[in-house]
């Protein structure tokens, strides 16, 4: 039997909208506040702090870069942002206007790779701000989350094309359609089994895609739960958020699913990451971060 402990920590006002969360090179949790245009920082057990950006820039996904800084997308301002652990911010405007950058992750080549939801492109930005864009072979695809894969490529979800994509370091793109129609994949993460795991927000499922393109899907107990983001822990399990179901869930690589209700109703769980303390942390749009710690009971 699996038991979890869930604690919620207020880090902002409900109107600020904590959205994504990651771990920085300083061992702190860094998170975006999409509605107020801020980037926050929390050391587990400490008090939260934040840095104000352009209030309307819409910071969304945030990730640790190869340069000991945090990189994030500004969805509304169509920029990529960088913040050092000391709080210095640099912003980089993108070549394509109104492109809507969303997902971002560090690649194996020492650069950051990101999705452009409104431009059907994948972007690459070096740590000194040089940007290259790669067009996708699908129109209206709404590329969303992106993550490095075990095969040296970057894997991403195509929310409106109902597919998973892969781009190599040479810019070559492959597209893998999903078996379930209109599944609308969003979050994606590398799993401990050499595959990529993703969530299907409109179908209420998780999916697994091997580097060769083979796909398996796992229906969730609540098909209306709207799974949003996924991450791997350090014990071989994947964790995901269900923002409509007000839950977090776990899935083993064998497909065993468990779900856990969050204490606060309508808290809207979004981003999820493995924290520096070994617990799973979730950004709640109601103004908090949730810490989930699992124990196995005999």
UniProtKB/TrEMBL annotation:
Membership in a protein family: Belongs to the Vgb family.
Protein's job: Inactivates the type B streptogramin antibiotics by linearizing the lactone ring at the ester linkage, generating a free phenylglycine carboxylate and converting the threonyl moiety into 2-amino-butenoic acid.
GO molecular function, one term: lyase activity
Cofactor entry: Mg(2+)
Positions with a binding annotation for Mg(2+): 268, 285
Keyword Metal-binding appears in the UniProt entry: yes
Domain of life: Bacteria
Subunit structure of this chain's protein: Monomer.
EC top class, as a word: lyase
Protein name as annotated: Virginiamycin B lyase
UniProt keyword DNA-binding present: no
Active site: 270 (proton acceptor)
Pfam families reported for this sequence: Vgb_lyase
HAMAP family named among the record's database cross-references: VirginiamycinB_lyase
Enzyme Commission number, as recorded: 4.2.99.-
Species assigned in the record: Micromonospora cathayae
Residues given in the record as substrate binding sites: 228
Keywords assigned by UniProt, alphabetized: Antibiotic resistance, Lyase, Magnesium, Metal-binding
InterPro entries, per the entry: Vgb, Vgb_bact, WD40/YVTN_repeat-like_dom_sf
Gene3D superfamilies assigned to the protein according to its UniProt record, in alphabetical order: YVTN repeat-like/Quinoprotein amine dehydrogenase
